[in-house]
Design a protein that fits this description.
The structure holds 2 protein chains of 2 kinds. Chain A is of the alpha/beta class. Chain A contains 5 helices and 11 strands, in the order E-H-E-E-H-E-H-E-E-E-E-H-E-E-E-H. In chain B, the strands form 5 sheets. Chain B has a 7-stranded mixed β-sheet with strand order 8-10-7-11-9-12-13. A 7-stranded mixed β-sheet of chain B has the order 23-25-22-26-24-27-28. In chain B, strands 1-2-3-6-4-5 form a 6-stranded mixed β-sheet. Classes of the chains: A alpha/beta, B alpha+beta. At the A-B interface, helix 1 and strand 6 of A face helix 8 and helix 10 of B.
Chain lengths: 229, 732
């Protein structure tokens, strides 16, 4: 697999995803500066977490209009896999690669903690390595992760099986208490219609190492490597 | 001779200069200063920048050890952590601004300390803090907690440096003066440390980062005076932070530092361009000529006075090697930051400032820096308190209810509500999260780690500053030891009231002496620090609060300890002697409503013996569960271990112990609690090391039981422990 990570001014999880990908791929991904509108062909483009452009204006809004995102959008339309984590999810939503918006957390506060997620679909390239219904533990760290979409859009996403992850308790129940940020239907991650673009608020790259007390995130990167060889 | 000093003009007094200081200005210059020059003298000689009341005492602190690369006097301290790497760290206060404008005050506190660390060439890898707020019942406390926590998170989260630990206590003495002490730890290549020394006549002086505005003018002077009812009117002197620009500045500076281009670099912190340029020039023994028209400004018609005294954030000053201007400019343009060559080094030994084509200041550098006043302020005597004996304190009606109450007090409750607002995992190297004895951050790409903690028990310091300060050092050392780290060095943040009062000066001097003894005995030198005086409102000072930030090294992350119980049927083994010292304890304060008595004595030899034994057990891989005993004593420690692991325990008061409540809640020092399958072996090895140990209970069940005193469920304890802060902050 060949992968690229887009780096914006204010990205701060770019190194973390670089480490996690390198661990699964056996070689480092390409780091692409936000101004680059042409970069070598890759199997996976990651839009990492952080505070691109300070998240001023609106989280992800300015990054969505960068040259590197314009190119990412073209490639996503052509079927290249794109993974947006945290700020990356916000950027993908702002780019209209994924439906819905990420509003301020219901508590109005930044939240950093481990949460339980239920894997809603076991489907390559992103979640093929998990079982459908499997409960995994992954950290979140965000101020604007409250996923919202109108009823029609939600019904379509649900109907098409495009919810990738849902916040649940450790038994896999999507309770109100297990919803850390007020997201509609406890949604933590969704894919696009074609299934080649995934946006998620939790950080799988932060729990891909036994020394950090968990490896539930690693299966996603190993799965991507298996999918793309 | 004071009698001969004429009264200074009104303008000097309003700049905080005393008559003697102003006379000294006239002598140095041989003429009257103009307004810009007066402003420069005023900030350079402020308490905040000159340490004029504290310097005499700080010189006595031990600052050396074979592993110390750079002690106090630079932007941050530097220690050798092996493998060609160095840890660079410092703690600094932002107390006054945070009280006036909690979000921005705290945020810029984090920004400032980050710059102190990366200016030395280190990538910041962890932030910590020590917060002290007023009584929970004070009407401003909730607002201040909310703003400070959001400000620390807002800044640290955005720059992408994890906030991994800290402490937060409440006391009415902080009602009018909260404490916000922020610490940053960075890692650098040992042979690539950058210092704030300007050398090489003709070399370019370069300004990078944000533009200069009118914010924060006279912040350093504000931090050098007491508050009165007019404190809110000082809001315009609080700076506004931009963590996004800071993140760019970190990346740009580190990128430039990888080139061979920088001679000296210093962040523009307190007193902005003035103190950065004077300090760099003074250290290098050169003169400087600055053209203020070239300073990037964000507002029109700024005067030289404003440009020199602005405390706008996210700015750095550097001296480049000749010919490196273009490389540097390219890097800063890539990161979309301002870059301007604003002057040159000269051989004149003077600071010459030009603005609008005119010379607006011409000052000798060394006389100004060296002549910063040093005060020998009168030191009031300590007033020792009587020791409270266990028999002086009535036993509680219900031990387990008292435990539950203690765990739900403002000081001892879980601070999860706070640290979950901080990104404590970004950089993916946080091995031990907040909530333990010390945070552990992996040294990137290795199996080694740094253990980090901040500590101080102000109620001990209020009772006896020398013992309290020694205890703060010992507790930091113990917290690092309890996770298996080898304590290496500390940074300190000494928060006190008005030093012009002998009582406060006495507390300060006692505290420095107490710290010094502990540092010496524990081989735990001070490598950086900060003094914050004038934490006082209307003549009422805070409890003396010498906060200690400790750094330790872990050689193998597979050999560490955590406080969470993890197995049933293990023995609980108490390390250290218990006399049942209740004076100044959390129990006495919270349950009996008494603050009297001497604090627990600190026996440094015993501290060292017990700690070295504990660390050896952890490093040998024999112990993986360990907790330092501190506030609330033994029973609170057991409860914290049980709650963290979700496993209960049963304890018995041993024969020959002091009264049960004194044994359970006393705060004797140099103690640890461990859980082990091999109590026999542990006891034997402790005996050989002359370390007192006692097997006091076993793990298991879903409740906590003290034989003869009752039982309480972990669920009830958890509700009390986790519930207080969210309920107080209004979102239970």
């Amino acid at each position: 697999m060949k992968a690229a990570v887009i780096v914006f001014p204010g990205s701060n999880c770019d190194r973390d995803i670089e480490v996690a990908l390198t661990q699964s791929m056996g070689r480092p991904p390409l780091m692409v500066w936000h101004r680059d509108d042409s970069f070598p062909s890759v199997d996976l483009i990651v839009v990492p977490g952080g505070f691109s452009y300070g998240d001023y204006l609106r989280a992800g809004a300015m990054a969505a209009n960068s040259p590197a995102m314009a190119e990412t959008k073209r490639r996503a339309d052509a079927g290249v896999a794109v993974l947006g984590i945290c700020n990356g999810f916000q950027i993908l939503a702002e780019s209209r690669l994924l439906p819905g918006v990420l509003m301020r957390n219901a508590t109005l506060r930044f939240i950093c903690r481990d949460v339980h997620l239920r894997v809603e679909e076991s489907r390559p390239p992103f979640t093929g390595n998990y079982r459908k219904g499997q409960v995994i533990r992954i950290p979140i760290a965000h101020h604007d992760g409250n996923y919202f979409a109108d009823h029609e859009t939600l019904a379509r996403i649900e109907g098409e099986g495009r919810v990738a992850f849902r916040y649940t308790d450790q038994c896999g129940k999507p309770t109100a208490r297990a919803n850390p940020n007020g997201s509609s239907a406890n949604i933590a991650g969704i894919v696009n219609e074609a299934g080649n673009v995934l946006g998620m608020m939790p950080h799988p790259e932060r729990l891909a190492d036994q020394a950090l007390s968990g490896t539930d995130g690693r299966a996603m990167f190993d799965g991507l490597v298996e999918a793309f060889g | 001779m004071a009698a001969e000093v004429p009264p200074p003009p009104e303008i000097a007094t309003s700049h905080g200069l005393t008559a003697e200081e102003y006379a000294n200005v006239l002598e140095i210059l041989g003429r009257e200063p103009n307004l810009t020059e007066l402003g420069i003298f005023s900030v350079m000689w402020s308490e905040h920048c000159s340490y004029k009341s504290s310097r005499k005492w700080l010189r006595r602190l031990p600052t050396e050890a074979p592993w110390v690369i750079c002690g106090p006097g630079e932007n941050a301290g530097v220690i050798d952590i092996g493998d060609g790497l160095a840890a660079v760290f410092k703690m600094e206060s932002h107390n006054h601004p945070s009280f006036i404008e909690p979000y921005q005050g705290a945020a810029t506190g984090v920004g400032g300390i980050l710059r102190d660390v990366f200016t030395m060439g280190a990538r910041p890898v962890a932030n910590l803090n020590a917060l002290r707020f007023g009584s929970p019942s004070h009407p401003k406390t909730r607002h201040l907690v909310s703003g400070v926590v959001a400000g620390i998170g807002g800044y640290g989260n955005c720059v992408g440096v994890p906030t991994v630990g800290g402490s937060c206590d409440f006391d009415e003495s902080y009602d009018g003066n909260i404490l916000v002490n922020a610490m940053t730890v960075g890692i650098a290549a040992k042979d690539r440390i950058f210092y704030a020394k300007a050398t090489g006549v003709g070399n370019p002086v370069v300004y990078v980062g944000s533009k200069t505005g009118r914010d924060g003018i006279h912040g350093a002077t504000m931090a050098s005076a007491e508050f009165d009812q007019e404190a809110d009117a000082k809001r315009p002197t609080v700076q506004v932070g931009d963590p996004f620009t800071e993140k760019l500045l970190i990346e740009a500076c580190l990128e430039l530092m990888a080139e061979d281009a920088i001679i000296g670099i210093q962040d523009m912190g307190a007193a902005g361009l003035t103190s950065s340029s004077f300090e760099m020039a003074s250290k290098g023994g050169v003169g400087v000529e600055l053209d203020l028209d070239r300073v990037p400004v964000r507002e029109e018609a700024m005067t030289a006075y404003e440009i020199m005294l602005s405390e706008s954030q996210e700015r750095m000053l550097m001296v480049l090697k000749p010919g490196k201007e273009d490389i540097a400019r390219r890097i800063f343009e890539k990161w979309e930051l301002d870059f301007a060559i604003i002057g040159r080094l000269t051989d004149s030994g003077r600071m010459v400032l030009r603005h609008n084509g005119k010379t607006v200041a011409d000052l000798p550098i060394n006389p100004l820096v060296d002549a910063a006043p040093v005060y020998h302020r009168p030191r009031g005597p300590a007033q020792p308190r009587p020791v409270v004996e266990p028999g002086d304190v009535a036993p509680p009606e219900d031990v387990m209810e008292s435990l539950k109450a203690l765990l739900g007090t403002a000081d001892l409750c879980s601070k999860r509500w706070i640290w979950e607002q901080y990104d404590h995992m970004v950089m993916a190297d946080t091995v031990a999260q907040p909530g333990g004895d010390a945070a552990i951050v992996r040294i990137h790409g290795s199996h080694r780690g740094l253990a980090l903690t901040t500590d101080c028990t102000p109620r001990y310091c209020g009772a006896d500053a020398a013992t309290g300060a020694a205890q703060a050092v010992a507790e930091a050392w113990r917290n690092l030891t309890a996770v298996g780290a080898r304590p290496l060095a500390i940074t300190d943040n000494l928060n006190f009231g008005n030093p012009e009062r002998p009582e406060i000066m006495g507390q300060f001097a006692d505290a420095v002496e107490g710290m010094g003894e502990a540092c010496l005995a524990l081989d735990f030198p001070v490598v950086s620090g900060n003094v914050s005086f004038y934490n006082e409102t209307n003549g009422k000072g805070i409890l003396p609060t010498p906060v200690i930030g400790g750094v330790g090294l872990i050689d193998d992350l597979a050999r560490t300890a955590t406080l969470a119980l993890s197995a049933v049927g293990q023995s609980l083994v108490l390390v250290g002697a218990t006399t049942g010292h209740l004076g100044c304890s959390a129990y006495l304060k919270e349950i009996e409503g008494r603050g009297d008595g001497a604090p627990p004595p600190v026996d440094l030899a015993c501290e060292r013996r017990n700690g070295d034994f504990v660390r050896a057990e952890i490093v040998a891989g024999r112990i993986t569960i360990c907790h330092d005993l501190s506030d609330g004593g033994l029973l609170v420690a057991v409860a914290e271990m049980a709650l963290a692991g979700g496993i209960g325990a049963t304890l018995s008061v041993p024969d020959g112990a002091p009264a049960a409540h004194a044994w359970l809640f006393g705060e004797d020092q140099a103690r640890y609690l461990m859980a082990t399958d091999d109590a026999e072996g542990l006891v034997e090895r402790a005996g050989a090391a002359l370390v007192p140990v006692a097997v006091i209970g076993t793990t298991g069940g879903e409740s906590l039981t003290v034989t003869g005193s009752g039982t309480i469920s972990l669920a009830q304890l958890s509700e009390s422990h986790e519930g207080w802060l969210p309920a107080y902050m209004g979102d239970a």
